[in-house]
Amino acid sequence: MAPSDPATPKTRLKSIIELLVTIAVAVGLALLIQAFIVKPYRIPSPSMVPTLAVGQRVLTNRLINHPSVGDIVVFHPPAGADPATPICGNPNQGGSGPQPCGAPTPQESSQTFIKRVVAGPGDSIAIIHGHVIRNGVAEKDSYIAPCDSCNYPKPVVVPAGDYFMMGDNRGESDDSRFWGPVPDKWVIGVAFFTYWPPDRIGFL
Question: What is the pLDDT of residues 48-83, one digit of tens each?
Fold first, then answer.
């Protein structure tokens, strides 16, 4: 039997085009998934210690923008989080006072934060020694680093459509206590899996 003819330039060109199209489709799908479904994030600060360490990486489900209490979420905070001294939407609340901030500034910040949802729409929230008191009940918070000086005993009610965010490292977190709740439209997604470093791989 005669050996098969070597591939012609036309055949080789077709194979190259098919390969390029396959790569382009794969890259396009990866970008679409990252843009609309799952996106990776790197933990930039110690505010979520001991749950998440600086440099740890997580995957976020972008299809969820109505999180539940206890979820760890990625979001844009109010613009009041931008100054060195955060600004509460209600000038009579927040900061170092006895009451957590109950209203965000109306503008959205371009920053990206990752915190835990500790109260949802309509919930009453106060903080005693870093422990959240939600609707009169202390949260089950074995995951936090407590803070004896973190006291906001006068409760506020979270507005409809908003979520109150706090870092697990209660004494080292810039969060809703100072700049208020986060509207659901500013929630990017819910973190569900950590993939780096290897010794911390697992679901959140």
Answer: 999 999 999 999 999 887 999 999 999 999 999 999
Beta strands in 101-151 (DSSP E): 113-119, 124-128, 131-134, 137-138
Question: Does residue 16 sit within a domain?
Answer: no
Place of tokens 């911390």: 200
Identify whether 91 is part of a domain. yes
CATH number, residue 131: 2.10.109.10
Residue 81 counted as domain residue: yes
Assign 24 a pLDDT band (cuts: 50, 70, 90).
low
Instruction: Note down the domain range covering 137.
Output: 41-203
pTM: 0.84
For residues 86 and 94, the answer to whether their CB atoms sit within 8 Å is yes
Tell me what the mean pLDDT of segment 97-114 comes to.
95
Q: Which residues are catalytic?
A: 47, 115
